[in-house]
């Protein structure tokens, strides 16, 4: 019989990190409120027939935000499930009072339903590092529940936890069944939490003083903003500098594999398909996967360190001007990786109106699906030169610029909408917890970045393969690829060509843009397939050289960048947005509005650059 174990805790207590350690899954781990927005389950790696269920972090069982509402409702339903055998309540011993109030509420609800509770005292490694102690035995007596020391980051205490859950710890006390707080109201539980923290918690304010000293710099009115700008710039600069060796290795590996595989394929048709569709189409996309890894790793490092909450606070004041809140920063930055988790993360925004405005902004954030397109166009049109002794790369600066152009467009949209519509909702005050600064757990960060790359490949790879095969088929027949302009694809291109001629783009780019409405990154695979058909005898992987040889002008290249920065071209994002917003009308309106705005913006930049001689 399969049993379930519930894992619950407040935000920033390390719950998701512990979940990953116990199950081997790679749930997103970050060090700011509002990151876990869905109920997640996974099988225990070391316990047979046992499922661990992880709920979103919440500060109390009296929900305020939509995320807390999900957590509380699912937790109450879970307590009614007969398959649930235990409840694991994770607490942060460095912030004991905050954790204990929620813990007392959890114990009360479990006592009412006869579910045993095991309290896990996390962050014990941080206390040990500062020479601080907490009286867990006394706390266990007061709570009438076992309290185990644990470190989700290092894994210390996990074997003891597993022994408890297996029932192998013969020396352990039996599960208590004291009903002392089963009928205690919340107001008394809050007072009890304060008294217990003072009585059994760590002595001294060393942790608070350390955090305050760092906050004095990162939240400084001048230095904090400068540090934020530098950190964001280094984030996008690293996309080129750190990923370049891996991209070169992937390109060389694909080229070597193509030279090895293509001669082994029987028949000229099979050789052409393998070379043009697979290696030129799929290969052109796979080259950019290392940049997805670097982007995910660096953002995860900033999240796990606790800096993202400070960045949200820094952004609150300027975001208010655009109708948003500092809490919008977290979903918007999540949208840099992918719009879908960004839309989910918007549940943590208390105000319905600001949540709607955040929905409008997230699709304009420069997501990782745009990254291959941006990288391809920047590498084709921006020279690979450096300045200041190699510290600043022109291509990295261009990436920084196009990313912030998308963010600026997002803020412009929210500013216009917030001023054009009356506010029918009463906003709650902006309250954001400042988590402690922590050294990131490197292994989960690497695993998360790797999982993100695999997800990106598997999610987009199927679509790209299907589109690439169709594009190759239409471009290869009826003349065997002898003349691409005379193929069926050429006929389709001439049909859509007039729409993109004002941007200086020929029919090939028009076809690639149309196929990219399935997913933005399909643009790269489509171009790779078409240029592969035209240049089958040349190197089958580097697409940049083919674009440069096609004599596409700088004005057209910049127009493409602007179009992809603004246009909403992701079917999956529209589907999730429709579900989260509870409206099919909203994503359709956004698709039409952003598509028109993207085209007009591309046309404007094309005319401007052409006028200036580009």
Automatic annotation (TrEMBL):
Pfam families with a match to the protein in the record: FeoB_C (PF07664), FeoB_N (PF02421), Gate (PF07670)
Domain FeoB-type G intervals: 2-171
User: So which residues are the signal peptide here?
Assistant: none
GO cellular component annotations, sorted alphabetically? plasma membrane
Transmembrane feature ranges: 217-236, 277-301, 321-344, 356-382, 394-417, 456-477, 509-531, 552-576, 588-609
Q: Which InterPro entries match?
A: Fe2_transport_prot_B_C, FeoB_GTPase, G_FEOB_dom, Gate_dom, GTP-bd, P-loop_NTPase
Q: Which domain of life is it from?
A: Bacteria
Q: Which Gene3D superfamilies match?
A: P-loop containing nucleotide triphosphate hydrolases
| Molecular function (Gene Ontology), one example | GTP binding
Which keywords does UniProt give here?
Membrane, Transmembrane, Transmembrane helix
Q: What is this protein called?
A: Ferrous iron transport protein B
Which organism was this protein described from? Answer: Pseudohaliea rubra DSM 19751
């Amino acid at each position: 019989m399969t049993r379930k174990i519930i894992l619950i805790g407040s935000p920033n207590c390390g719950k998701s990190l512990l979940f990953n350690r116990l199950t081997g899954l790679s749930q997103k781990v970050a060090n700011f409120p509002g990151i876990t927005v869905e109920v997640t389950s996974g099988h225990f790696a070391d316990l047979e027939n046992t499922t661990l269920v992880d709920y979103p972090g919440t500060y109390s069982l009296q929900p305020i935000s939509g995320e807390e509402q999900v957590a509380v409702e699912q937790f109450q339903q879970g307590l009614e499930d007969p398959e649930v055998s235990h409840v694991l309540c994770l607490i942060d011993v460095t912030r004991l009072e905050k954790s204990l109030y929620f813990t007392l509420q959890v114990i009360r609800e479990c006592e009412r339903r006869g579910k045993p509770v095991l309290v896990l005292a996390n962050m014990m490694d941080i206390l040990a590092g500062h020479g601080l102690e907490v009286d867990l035995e006394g706390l266990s007596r007061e709570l009438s529940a076992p309290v185990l020391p644990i470190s989700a980051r290092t894994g210390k205490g996990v074997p003891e936890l597993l022994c408890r859950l297996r029932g192998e710890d013969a020396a352990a006390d039996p599960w208590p069944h004291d009903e002392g707080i089963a009928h205690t109201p919340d107001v008394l539980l809050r007072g009890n939490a304060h008294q217990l923290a003072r009585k059994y918690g760590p002595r001294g304010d060393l942790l608070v003083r350390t955090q305050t000293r760092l906050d004095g710099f990162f939240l400084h009115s001048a230095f904090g903003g400068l540090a934020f700008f530098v950190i964001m710039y280094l984030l996008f600069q690293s996309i080129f500098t750190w990923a370049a060796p891996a991209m070169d290795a992937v390109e060389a590996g694909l080229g070597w594999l193509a030279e090895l595989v293509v001669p082994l394929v029987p028949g000229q048709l099979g050789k052409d398909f393998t070379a043009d569709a697979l290696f030129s189409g799929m290969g052109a996309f796979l080259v950019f996967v290392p940049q997805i890894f670097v982007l995910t790793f660096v953002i995860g490092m900033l999240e796990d360190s606790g800096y993202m909450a400070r960045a949200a606070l820094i952004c609150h004041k300027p975001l208010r001007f655009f109708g948003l809140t500092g809490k919008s920063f977290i979903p918007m930055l999540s949208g840099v990786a992918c719009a879908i988790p960004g839309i989910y993360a918007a549940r943590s925004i208390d105000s319905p109106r600001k949540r709607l405005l955040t929905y409008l902004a997230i699709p304009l954030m420069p997501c990782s699906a745009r990254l291959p397109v941006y990288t391809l166009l920047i590498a084709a049109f921006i020279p690979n030169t450096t300045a200041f002794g190699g510290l600043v790369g022109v291509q990295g600066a261009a990436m920084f610029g196009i990313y912030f152009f998308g963010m600026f467009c997002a803020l412009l949209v929210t500013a216009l909408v917030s001023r054009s519509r009356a506010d029918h909702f009463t906003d709650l005050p902006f309250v954001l917890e400042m988590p402690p600064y922590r050294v990131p757990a490197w292994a989960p960060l690497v695993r998360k970045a790797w999982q993100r790359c695999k997800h990106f490949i598997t999610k987009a790879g199927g679509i790209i393969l299907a589109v690439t095969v169709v594009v190759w088929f239409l471009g290869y027949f009826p003349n065997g690829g002898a003349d691409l302009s005379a193929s069926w694809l050429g006929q389709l291109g001439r049909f859509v060509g007039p729409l993109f001629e004002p941007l200086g783009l020929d029919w090939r780019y028009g076809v690639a843009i149309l196929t990219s409405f399935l997913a933005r990154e399909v643009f790269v695979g489509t171009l790779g397939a078409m240029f592969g058909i035209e240049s089958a005898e040349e190197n089958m992987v580097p697409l940049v050289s083919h674009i440069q040889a096609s004599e596409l002008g700088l004005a057209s290249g910049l127009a493409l960048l602007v179009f992809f920065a603004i246009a909403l071209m992701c079917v999956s994002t529209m589907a999730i947005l429709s579900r989260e917003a509870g409206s099919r009308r909203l994503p359709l309106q956004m698709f039409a509005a952003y598509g028109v705005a993207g085209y007009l913006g591309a046309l404007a930049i094309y005319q401007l650059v052409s006028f200036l001689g580009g």
